[in-house]
Sequence to fold (152 residues):
Amino acid sequence: MAKKESNVLAQNRKSRHDYTILSTVEAGIVLKGTEIKSIRAGRINLKDGFATIRQGEAYLHNVHISPYEQGNLFNHDPLRARKLLMHKRQIDQLLGESKNKGITLIPLKVYLKNGFAKVLIGVAKGKKQYDKREDLKRKAVNREVERALKNH
Fold:
C-alpha cells in the first residue's frame, strides 16, 4: 500500500489576506512526545504563529498544539517555541530576507509528508488596508468573469 504524498492538517487562511507571500520554504518540526499525536488529530492552530532565527537556528513561536487527551503526564506546553529543521543555506537565506523592513516569517500550513510533520514557512510582507480592498475587488471581478464564461 503506497503512502499518501501529503496530508494538510492545518492552514493559516488569514495569512494570504493579511500578507503578500514572497517565497516559501518547507521545514521539519522538532516535536516532543505526544505532540505528533495531537498534530495527527488536527489539533494545531497556526493563527498567531511566526518564525524567528536565533544563533543560526530557526524557531516557530505562538503555534498552539493542544495537549493530547491520553497523554496526561507526558504532555508539553502548548505554546512552546519549536525548533525548525532546515539546511544551513536555507536558514541563511531566510535570515537575509527577514532583515528587510516589513518582512515576516509566518507558517502557512502544516502537513504530513512520508509520516513526518512539515511546516511551510512563508516570507511575507504585510498588506495595507487599501491593498486588501484591491485584492477583494479583483477576486470579485474574476468570479463574475468566470460565471459569465460558464453561463455562455
Remarks:
- The two ends are 44 Å apart (CA to CA).
- The chain has a mean pLDDT of 86.
- The CA atoms of residues 56 and 91 lie 7 Å apart.
- Helices lie at 13-18, 35-40, 88-98, 129-151.
